[in-house]
Design a protein that fits this description.
Layout: H1 6-15, E1 20-23, E2 31-32, E3 41-45, E4 49-51, E5 55-57, H2 61-74, E6 80-84, H3 86-91, H4 95-105, E7 116-117, H5 122-130, E8 136-140, H6 144-152, E9 161-164, E10 174-176, H7 181-189
Parallel strand pairs: 1-3, 2-4, 3-5, 6-7, 6-8, 8-9, 9-10
């Protein structure tokens, strides 16, 4: 609400007998809230709330990325790329990128592909496909087929498997990870 200060919000919450707060993921990867925290039991969903330090519940982003890379490799994919939204990777403490790089560390150098960071550079996204020649692309914090089409005005390349680290943000061309935000929220509420 306009003019509502953190101090006023804290007073309103306390006057209504609200003693517990569930803070959802924030758009800002380095979010902070300035409330009267000693008066509230608080659980955050995700990592984006940096200040204050509170208990949190979240998806296991690192393990989910490893599962995606290992499944693709097990299906015969040899050149697995990663298309990444830098701000979303920051929100998950770079766990997507870390797991991807860990997976790549065990590959021969010729099969390691550079991470493509979404930037709005049409030439870069075309080169991501043309020069890297991936047989699979994992999207994290974005959806590669949709971004490719919106940036280039051309259909997404065929013959590439698309996986999205949050299937709720993908269309039918991608398969992926169901982060099950409802379950994460339920767990936070039972904390």
């Amino acid at each position: 609400a306009p003019g509502l200060t953190p101090a006023n919000l804290s007073r309103v919450l306390r006057s209504r007998g609200i003693r517990g707060l569930l803070v959802s993921a924030c758009r800002d990867p380095d979010a902070s809230l300035d409330l009267a925290w000693p008066h509230f039991a608080t659980v955050a969903c995700g990592y984006s709330l940096v200040r204050p330090l509170v208990d949190r519940t979240t998806t296991d982003y690192y393990r989910a990325m490893l599962m995606a890379t290992e499944k693709l490799a097990g299906e015969g994919c040899r050149r697995i790329g990663l298309c990444l939204s830098p701000s979303d990777d920051t929100k998950v403490l770079h766990l997507w990128q870390s797991a991807y790089l860990y997976f790549q560390h065990g590959l021969p150098a010729r099969r390691r592909l550079a991470i493509h960071e979404v930037s709005g550079d049409t030439a870069a996204i075309r080169a991501c496909v043309r020069t890297a020649r991936p047989d699979a692309i994992i999207s994290a914090g974005c959806d590669f087929p949709q971004i490719y089409e919106s940036m280039t005005g051309r259909p997404a390349p065929t013959g590439i498997r698309f996986v999205n680290m949050n299937i709720q943000h993908a269309d039918a061309r991608s398969r992926g990870v169901a982060q099950d935000s409802c379950l994460v929220g339920r767990h936070a509420c039972s904390h």
